[in-house]
Write a structure and sequence with these properties.
Blueprint: E1 2-6, H1 11-20, E2 25-32, H2 38-49, E3 53-57, H3 60-73, H4 77-92, E4 98-100, H5 114-124, E5 127-129, H6 137-147, E6 148-154, H7 163-175, H8 177-183, E7 188-195
Helix pairs in contact: 3-4, 3-7, 7-8
């Protein structure tokens, strides 16, 4: 069975892929808007991990909706959630038997409710998999430290293929740099550079 795993090149999506690899033919999928080099960073990590990789470009309307929500809200949660749901839908429309992500038990964003996951499965006749759903951040951090080579840095400068990188740039283009700094508070982020 083929599983399309939404992939950013971070530790969560990398661990999800590794956990599923025993049971599925895993393909890592970067879903984004073609902004900057986010997909290139995800592709480089996929190659280091030894998984096939593909790029999926989401509709511009999704980006527009996400940017508008973030600008109105003053925080990124609803915008990122919008993109994540669109990405899951787009991968579920593909040739996969299952779609997966790296969401954890204690994630604030993105999240997938049981009802939304069941709806996705029924509408697309696929399985939705969230292999890290039972793991908290501490457990994921320990598993990642034992399994993966990881680089850390400020989210605004760390080269990674997540939604945030592209949304930061799209928000900057639409609303200016000052709103980007207000919407995305500084935090440390990780990127996987290989296996241990």
């Amino acid at each position: 069975m083929r599983a399309g795993v939404l992939f950013s090149g971070g530790k969560d999506s990398s661990l999800a892929a590794l956990l599923l690899d025993r049971f599925y033919d895993v393909r890592l999928v970067h879903a984004g808007f073609g902004v900057g080099d986010a997909a290139d960073h995800a592709a480089a990590t996929a190659e280091e991990l030894g998984f096939p990789f593909e790029r999926l470009t989401l509709e511009t309307a999704v980006a527009d909706e996400a940017v508008a929500r973030m600008a109105e809200d003053g925080f990124p949660r609803n915008g990122i959630q919008t993109v994540h749901e669109a990405a899951l839908e787009a991968v579920a429309d593909g040739e996969f038997d299952a779609v997966a992500d790296g969401t954890r038990r204690d994630d604030r964003v993105p999240t997938v409710s049981r009802a939304w996951a069941q709806s996705l499965e029924e509408r697309h006749d696929i399985d939705y998999l969230s292999p890290l759903a039972g793991f908290g951040r501490g457990a994921v951090d320990r598993l990642a430290a034992d399994t993966l080579e990881i680089e850390e840095g400020p989210a605004r400068t760390l080269a990674k293929g997540d939604y945030e990188a592209e949304l930061r740039e799209l928000l900057r283009e639409a609303e200016g740099a000052s709103l980007v700094e207000a919407v995305f508070p500084e935090r440390v982020q990780t990127r996987v550079t290989g296996r241990r």
